[in-house]
Design brief:
mainly alpha
Length: 279
C-alpha cells in the first residue's frame, strides 16, 4: 500500500525565508503585515470614486520630502527633519517640566491625606479637558504661539505622571513603613531608600503614558497655531493646499516617532526599574 505524503510549501520554507526568519524572528511578521496593508491600501485607492491616494502615489508626490528631509529655505519652508525636530524640542521642554512637577505633586498627594482630599477634585476636573480645548485659553493668556504650545503639552502630559505617582506612593506596603519606623529612618533616608524605589514602577508607567500624550498634544497644538515650524503646522498647511499625500506622509512619520518615543521610555525603564518590580 502506498502512503500519501504532503509536500511542504516551498514559498514559506525556502532557504532564504527560513534563514531570515531564524535570524530575525521578530522582524518577519510585522514586515509581512505591513506589506499586506500596503497592498490592500493600494487596491482600495484604485477603486472608482476613491479620494485618497495609494502608497505608490504618495511616494511619487512626496519623493522630494522623503529623500531630502534636511533642506532649509527659511521660515516654515523646511524639510521634515526640521519640522519633527522642532516639535520634539517643544515636547522635551514641556515633558521634562511635567515630569518634575507631576512627580513632586504626586508624592505630596500620596503622602498627605489632607492634600489628596483638597486637590483631587481639581485634578480630576482638569485632566478630562482635551488638549485642543486648552489651545484658545493658552493663546489668550500667553499671547504667543511658542509658549502656548509648550503649555498645551505640559498640561496634557502632567496628569498621568501625577496620578500614577500618587497611586504608587499610596501602594507602598505597610511592612516597608514599619521597617522604616523600627530603623528610625530620617525623612531623607525614607524618601530615597523606601518611597522612591517602591513607587518607581508606577512613576514609569505614568511617564510612558505621558510621552505618548505629549506627542499627541503637540500635533494638536501646532495644527491650529500658524507661522511656527513643526510637524503639526506642516500637516495643516499641506491640508490647506490640498496636498493629501504630504498629510499622509507626515502621519506616517508621526507614528514612527511616537513608536520610537515609547520604545525609548521602555528601554530607560529596563535600565532603572528592577525586573521583578515592574507593574
Amino acid at each position: 500500500m502506498t502512503t500519501l505524503r504532503t509536500r511542504p510549501a516551498r514559498g514559506l520554507q525556502s532557504p532564504w525565508f527560513s534563514r531570515i526568519n531564524k535570524r530575525f524572528p521578530d522582524l518577519v511578521p510585522p514586515i509581512v503585515a505591513i506589506a499586506i496593508f500596503l497592498v490592500i491600501w493600494q487596491l482600495f485607492s484604485l477603486t472608482p470614486g476613491a479620494t485618497l491616494p495609494g502608497p505608490i502615489q504618495v511616494v511619487q508626490d512626496t519623493w522630494i520630502l522623503i529623500f531630502w528631509p534636511f533642506f532649509n529655505l527659511g521660515g516654515t519652508n523646511v524639510g521634515l527633519f526640521w519640522q519633527i525636530l522642532a516639535s520634539l524640542q517643544r515636547v522635551a521642554i514641556s515633558y521634562i517640566l511635567a515630569a518634575i512637577i507631576g512627580i513632586g505633586l504626586g508624592i505630596l498627594i500620596g503622602t498627605s491625606r489632607v492634600m489628596s482630599k483638597a486637590l483631587d477634585p481639581i485634578f480630576q476636573l482638569l485632566r478630562t479637558v482635551p488638549p485642543l480645548a486648552w489651545v484658545p485659553i493658552s493663546l489668550a493668556a500667553l499671547r504667543q504661539n511658542e509658549p502656548a504650545a509648550l503649555f498645551v503639552i505640559f498640561i496634557t502630559a502632567i496628569w498621568p505622571i501625577l496620578i500614577n505617582t500618587a497611586v504608587g506612593v499610596k501602594q507602598i506596603p505597610q511592612d516597608y513603613n514599619n521597617v522604616a519606623k523600627v530603623l528610625q529612618l530620617t525623612r531623607k533616608e525614607y524618601f530615597f531608600n523606601i518611597l522612591i524605589p517602591a513607587a518607581l514602577p508606577y512613576i514609569f508607567t505614568g511617564l510612558r503614558i505621558a510621552i505618548g500624550l505629549a506627542w499627541l498634544a503637540i500635533i494638536a497644538a501646532e495644527i491650529v497655531m500658524s507661522g511656527i515650524v513643526g510637524i503639526g503646522f506642516f500637516i495643516w498647511e499641506a491640508y490647506q493646499n490640498n496636498n493629501v499625500s504630504e498629510v499622509i506622509l507626515a502621519l506616517i512619520y508621526i507614528g514612527i516617532v511616537g513608536l520610537l518615543l515609547d520604545k525609548l521610555m521602555a528601554w530607560i525603564e529596563t535600565l532603572i526599574v528592577p525586573q521583578g518590580q515592574k507593574t
